[in-house]
Amino acid sequence: MTGEWAVARPHRALRPLVARYIGYTQHGMPAGVHRGLPSRFVTLVISLDEPMRVLGMPIPGESPLAARGMVGGMHTGPALLEQAPFQSGIHLELNPLGAHALLGVSAAELSGHLVELGDLGSPALAALPDRLTEAPTWHRRFEILDETLGASLGDGDTGTPEIGWAWRRMLTAAGRVRVDALADEVGWSRRHFGELFRRELGLPPKQAARVLRFERAGAVLRASGRVDLAALAVDCGYYDQAHLTREWRALAGCTPGVWIAEELPFLQYAEPGADADSVA
């Protein structure tokens, strides 16, 4: 298997809403299924080749999807994608609190769903797969994304300040923070806090914390290939190894050991929070 990766941060005006752009080209991938895992982001993925095929949606029972551009909200189950021998595209990591400003649709409306880019109602967003495919370099593709997202940026509203503060606290703690403590710190009842949090991010705070703990465990595994699951469970805020394994079955659709064997050899780009200024 051979591959090319290009990782960059967006224009500084977009950085509060877009974490980074990840470009990729991979040859010789084994045919199979790739698990799109829950994360802190609303994700926008654009293929520079054939349409991407989603075989299993995060919400069971929803119809499969094939598209060259799609956006997915925060979710608590895996998206199962066909893994072709050759694939090339760009993956964007979006702050869920900025989804409406960037895409014209809220994180709550996207939660648990994958939506074709052309269905968002923006001709500029719908044109991105063709424009990016025609661009000659990663640098130019990232410039097109800056231009398109900057032009489509709405009023910049990123929600209620208290929810933004609570979300940042949860991110910093990788989900290891009590929801009632956050509600107390902003001076709201737990019920009011939970309702507003879900309205703005698409998941209730307890479910969002689950996703962040899971994401943290995945980051440790990617960084080190670590297989001491008992120690990993403690590090990531689980009660024990059995709790970790149950959560992985629910959120990834498999155990950590199965995921390591299936996916880890092919995951090469940097984790959230890493320096992402390089374009290769």
UniProtKB/TrEMBL annotation:
SUPFAM superfamilies documented for this protein: Homeodomain-like
Pfam hit, one: HTH_18
SMART domains linked: HTH_ARAC
Domain HTH araC/xylS-type: 176-262
Alphabetized Gene3D superfamilies for the sequence: Homeodomain-like
Top-level taxonomic group: Bacteria
Keywords linked to the UniProt accession: DNA-binding, Transcription, Transcription regulation
Alphabetized PROSITE patterns for the sequence: HTH_ARAC_FAMILY_2 (PS01124)
InterPro entries, sorted: AraC_XylS_family_regulators (IPR050204), Homeodomain-like_sf (IPR009057), HTH_AraC (IPR018060)
Name of the protein: AraC family transcriptional regulator
Native organism: Amycolatopsis minnesotensis
Species classification: Bacteria, Bacillati, Actinomycetota, Actinomycetes, Pseudonocardiales
